Amino acid sequence: MTKKQRALAIVELLKKEYPEALCTLDYDEAWKLLVSVRLAAQCTDARVNIVTEKLFDVYPSVEALALADVKDIEDIVKPCGLGPSKARDISAAMKLLHEKYNDHVPGDFDVLLKLPGVGRKSANLIMGDVFGKPAIVTDTHLIRLSNRFGLVETKDPKKVEMELIKLIPPEESNDFCHRAVLHGRALCTARSPKCEACPISEVCKRVGV
Q1: Per residue in 9-34, is it b (16+ CB within 10 Å) or e — as a string?
Q2: What's the predicted TM-score (pTM) here?
């Protein structure tokens, strides 16, 4: 079985197991997802959702966050860890959106990368979830699973992204990443993967295919 064949088989198996491929960060506007994904660095989505509920209640718009004192933002986002740096990035990004982009998140990958605190992972999530574009979001779950499945042999996020672009059909890429997160949490965990209960085991490189 080639890597391409394995990738296509895994896409279909994950579809059956997780028919609803949804982002686990709560948001109803693009700028809120931008803030949430910055807070999600080294923090669980569940905790981020609790923190952003309060943050967006206090600052309900791009303009409100752009005009907020960084220390006040930090006080709210502190439970997500790395409070000072996350607050600075959020403040700077919202200021840029307010002053340059009329409070809108730009739908251009390269422009997104120029926003404070936005890397390839965040930009891909925005492009995929907000703008419906093909996207490979290389979070820790996707990197771990892609290696275990035998699709890649690297833990470098950008290299994983580039390799998966060759293997995963563009129209499936964003949903595939969300399903990988769900699978990584449910069965293919970091320390004790439940291979005996895994629907991917028939094509997974880890179990001898």
Answers
A1: bbbebbeeebeebebebbbebbbbbb
A2: 0.94
Catalytic residue among 139, 159, 166, 175: 139
- List pLDDT tens digits, range 6-55: 999 999 999 999 999 989 999 999 999 999 999 999 999 999 999 999 99
Phi, psi of 56 (to 5 degrees): -75, -20
Catalytic residue list contains 139: yes
- State the Cα–Cα distance between residues 186 and 169, nearest whole angstrom: 24
Is 137 in contact with 177 (CB distance < 8 Å)?
Answer: yes
Q: Percent helix, strand, coil in the chain (nearest 5)?
A: 65, 0, 35
Question: Counting Cβ atoms within 10 Å, is residue 164 exposed (0-12), middle (13-18) or buried (19+)?
Answer: buried
Q: How many CA atoms, within 13 angstroms, populate the side-chain half-sphere of residue 122?
A: 27
Structural domains of the chain ordered from first start: 3-21+135-207 (1.10.1670.10), 30-129 (1.10.340.30)
Tell me the residue type at 63. Answer: E
DSSP 131: T
Q: DSSP secondary-structure letter at 197?
A: G
Which of 32, 121, 129, 175 is labelled catalytic? 121
